[in-house]
Amino acid sequence: SQLLAIWRRRKWLIVGCVGGAVLLGLVLTLLVTPKYTASTTIEIQREGSNAISVSNNDTKTNFVDQEFYETQYGLLRSEALAKR
């Protein structure tokens, strides 16, 4: 009953303090820089690739290489890999 009397006398002060704290917390949460960020670079290479090889302009080889890289990129983007 004493708490109820205090609440009635000070209700706007209590509501204002709680509302101000919630508003301040919301503003700080929205303005703060995200703490956890990540980035990565993935290099895709064929097994047994020759590091000394000279560039080959053969269109068939370029098509096969492009297809290989697209396949590898697709596998890396797969949901199954992300779940593992």
Give an overview of the whole structure.
By secondary structure, this protein is mainly α. Helices cover 63% and strands 0% of the residues. It contains three helices and no strands. The two termini are 58 Å apart.
SSE arrangement:
Layout: H1 2-31, H2 59-76, H3 79-83
Give me a quick take on this structure.
With 84 residues, the chain is mainly alpha-helical. Helices cover 63% and strands 0% of the residues.
Search tags:
84 residues, mainly alpha, 3 helices, 63% helix, rod-shaped
Q: Rounded to an integer, what's the Rg over CA atoms? A: 30 Å
The biggest beta sheet reads: none
Outline:
rod-shaped
Helical stretch tally: 3
Global structural class: mainly alpha
Mean pLDDT: 82
Order of helices and strands: HHH
Low-confidence stretches: none
Helix content: 55-70%
Question: What's the count of strands?
Answer: 0
Span of the ends, CA to CA: 58 Å
User: Beta-strand percentage?
Assistant: under 5%
